[in-house]
Known about the structure:
The structure holds 2 protein chains of 2 kinds.
Chain A: H1 10-26, H2 66-79, H3 83-100, H4 108-128, H5 135-148, H6 152-165, H7 172-185, H8 189-201, H9 206-222, H10 228-242, H11 246-250, H12 257-273, H13 276-284, H14 293-306, H15 310-323, H16 328-344, H17 347-360, H18 364-369, H19 372-391, H20 395-406, H21 412-425, H22 429-442, H23 448-465, H24 470-488, H25 492-508, H26 511-523, H27 529-546, H28 549-565, H29 575-596, H30 600-613, H31 618-633, H32 637-650, H33 657-670, H34 674-687, H35 691-705, H36 708-721, H37 728-744, H38 748-761, H39 767-790, H40 797-822, H41 824-846, H42 856-890, H43 895-907, H44 909-912
Helix pairs in contact in A: 2-3, 3-4, 4-5, 5-6, 6-7, 7-8, 7-9, 8-9, 9-10, 9-12, 10-12, 12-13, 12-14, 13-14, 14-15, 15-16, 16-17, 17-19, 19-20, 20-21, 21-22, 21-23, 22-23, 23-24, 24-25, 25-26, 25-27, 26-27, 27-28, 28-29, 29-30, 29-31, 30-31, 31-32, 32-33, 33-34, 34-35, 35-36, 36-37, 37-38, ...
Chain B: H1 2-15, H2 17-26, H3 41-56, H4 60-73, H5 78-90, H6 94-107, H7 112-125, H8 129-142, H9 148-161
Helix pairs in contact in B: 1-2, 3-4, 4-5, 5-6, 5-7, 6-7, 7-8, 8-9
Amino acid sequence: MTPMAPMKSTARLKLRTCLLMAALVSAPALGQESFRVELGRDGETLGDMRPVFLKFESRPLPAISPAEVARRYQKLFESSDEPEVRIDALNRLNNIRDRSGQEVGFSAEQEAGIYEEVLESYEDILARGSFSGRLDELLYQMAKAHALTGQHQQSIDRLEQLIGLYPKSPLVPEARFRVAEADFSAGRYREAEAGYRQLLDGDGKQDIASKARYMMGWSQFKQGAGAWDRSVESFMALLDQHLPEPERLKSPPAESRDMIEDSFRILAVMAARSDNARSLDRWLAGRNPAPWVPILYDRLADLHAHEGGYQQAVAVNEAFAAAYPDNAAASDMLAQSVEFWQMAGDVEAARVARSDYVARFASDARYTALNGNQKANWRDYSRFLADYHYAGKRWSQSADYYESLALRADNTGEILHLAGDARLQMGRLDQALANFEKAAYTYSHDRSVESAWAAISILRDRLGNRSEPVTEALASLSSAEQRYTNAFGPDARLSALRADLANRWLEAGDGQQALLYARATLDWPQASPREQYAAWLVTARVRQGDGDYPQAEAAWRQALQLVQATPEVAESRDDEQKIQNQLATAIYRQAETAAGAGKTALAVANFQRVETILPGSEIAIKARFDAANTLLKAADWQTAINELRRFRLDFPEDALTAETSEKLVYAYQQSGQPVKAAGELMAAAGSAPEPWPIKLRAAALYHEAGAEPERNDLYQQWLAVAPEPADAKDHLQQQTMRQRLIESGVDVSNQQNILLAREDASEWHSEETLQWAADAALALGSGAAERFAAIALTAPLETTLARKQQAMEQAQTYLLQAESFAGEDVQSEVLYRRAELYRTLASDLMASEVPAELNDMETMQYQMLLEEEAFPLEERAMALHARNHQRITGQGYDQWIARSLEALAGMHPGRYQRELRWMSWNMEGNDDA
Amino acid sequence: MPEFSLRCRTVGALIGLVMLAGCASTGPVSKQAEPEPVRSPEQARELARQGMLAHEQGQTSVAIEALQKAVALDPTDAAAANNLALLLKQQNRFEEAAGVLKTAIQASPDVADLHYNLAVISEIYLLDLSAALIHYQRYTELAAEEDKAVTGWMADLQRRLQ
Lengths: 929, 162
């Protein structure tokens, strides 16, 4: 590797590598540091610069080691007295040392003496004129010996002697070269140029010609700027000779590579000291295109850079790129500019150079044309620029660089992620999202999961912005979640997202989606308590909304358990209370459902469970109440009664308690406990503002139960205060009560009279009330008849008879009233009783006490008068009984007709007294038949 | 027709109620003549005896039922028919009582008491004075000796019928 450390750069190395790699690999170690003239080592001025040292051609080394060969020649030199032999041995030793690069043979101190001895031999041979070999060779060897012993002028003399004496000798070109070289070394550059040109004009060997051209260029260079055009032409001709086609750039001839390299250097120096790239342009104008041109520009740029002229170096690169835009090296030159600016410490200029580079090769066509290293440069610069703008918060530029780089980079996903980030920073969410998603799923990279999450974050942020319908936004986010899950599996962030999605779907009214995400949240074992809590809440709400109350209850319980165990999951301080309320509601609804389905036991159990969740709460109280109601509906009367009574005891102040009484009454009634139902009503009536409607219901229940004392007591109380009937119903109610009191034997006569009077005065009647009135009238009439019959007709007859007649009239009135109320239904009895009144009066009249003061005659007359008075009464009685008897065919036989018939049999036996005749039972065989 | 019925039920069980109904509707219908009572004096006497015992025990309804059967088996048992009519009269079943007596009179037209009792029931409980007069008259014709009371009643009836 060429030691150019001070100005080494990537681009420079690339050029060097192309040119010299093959040579370095294949060439033997020549040990020729003197051949190499490097900048910085030759001196500070052009005058100090020196060409490389040239070696003479020699034969190949033998196969044995150089040291052994040298040892043999050294021994030969020391042991031989023959001048020819000694000279030949010495030449051999020198050749071996030169070619092997080893310190073999004589030491430096020995050599001076030895060459002195050899020169003596040469002189001796030359003087003898008896040299058997060629004299040109002898002169050559002598020149060489002089040179080796430091006798340079003598050496040149011998060489010029050789040229003059033997111009056709094959040693002449080398001799000329040596002479020109001596001129060059002595600073006689014009002479040297002439010598070299003379050599070139001759037909010397190609290798010597090449070296001569090289040295001629140097000779011209050394003459100053006025000769530089010639020097340039010399060096360029040399380059054309050695680097005729591009392939040679990769493998320049090993023996020439230093010359080639040095030619570039000197050309660069001349351009640098002239008009830089413009000089190059001028020198190259008119020449055929050469493959080495880019190297020349490169050397010039390197030269400036080495001297700290980075701006000029960059200018050279840009000039090349401008002059040869399609040259493959143009990109390297421009890349080199970046490095020059970096070396110059001008970061901004370096950035601009990168930017220019990236822009210049941004199109697919230009980029594709780049080689691998150039593409790498483009990518490096793009990344640099993208990062640079990102750091400067120039998001748009940064994103542009990242995006254009992404698909050309190996780490596309990572770059797209950065592009997405930049787009996100500038608020271009759609582009950011697209970048993140590609980075996540299309171009996998180490942090694809972060890209995926960034995409999700954008979608989630959109939800907050409401820039699109929430369901669509949620669908997008859900889709992203699914994609993330499929690609990376669940993690803590995703778990939180799922919980969030569950909530959002719920808010959006899509319970199924909400449920799905709640389930997904809970399915991941590492979900945090807060996420689990959120998921359970969502589950519970959806289930509750769907009417799936058992599931809702289970979910509420899970949520409650979480918030109790981990209070920090709560969203507000009253979360626990709210959940308990919902839990209670879920249980309550289960109870309602069970009740609706006729599952009484389950319904009641659920209603009662509510209290275990929220004891004493409104819903718990209502549940208790509804438990009792459910039992009522299910006709589980006694259990319902127990529940209602317990409810009343437990919640005496609750509004629902007021309803328990009615329900208890109902339950008592339905369970066949009317007395208890009535008792419940009576208790309720005690505190009721209008007690009588309740008491009357109690009375009805007492009646139903046959509890007549309680009932009658209520009837009497009510009838004492009851207003006048306002309608038929009221009338019937009151008459019914009176009738029942009568039937119970309570205040019978009074009630009968009132009943009769009320019915008589009422505008409303029913069959029942009319019948009751008729019965009352009959009863009263019967009582009056009895009182009538009991009045004995004693003296004074007028008085007792008047009383008796008054009683009879009263009885008649009742009886006629009865007939007027009940008609045919009571007519038989009325006829009988009326007839009996007459018959009794007639009989009593006939049996009445005769006044004691009457004598017998008067008594007889008195009795006759009585008979006369009694007879029509008896006739009237018989007529009424006969009328009753006649009713037998029309109205049918009844007891009152039978009794009239009995009376008639007594009063008129000839017509009515009959005895039917039984016949003897025929228990024997019917002999008569 | 047990065979036919059995066969019809079997078929009906196989093919359903419709066919069963069809059998019922298409079955032979023959109007039976009113059955003549099977005269069975011994059984009638037994029933009459049971009626008597029931009557003596105050079981009027049981007695009536037994006697009705007895009279049906032996319409010539005038005593059973007469006493049955009286028991029916006790239950105010006057028309039935009269009917029993009339039937008995058909079988035993010369039993005076049957006429007497039919006349009384007709007069007092059915108010059928004409019938009463006829049977009082028949009674007097069959009676072994004159009954003056009955004669008086007949005179009263004749007056009331005029």
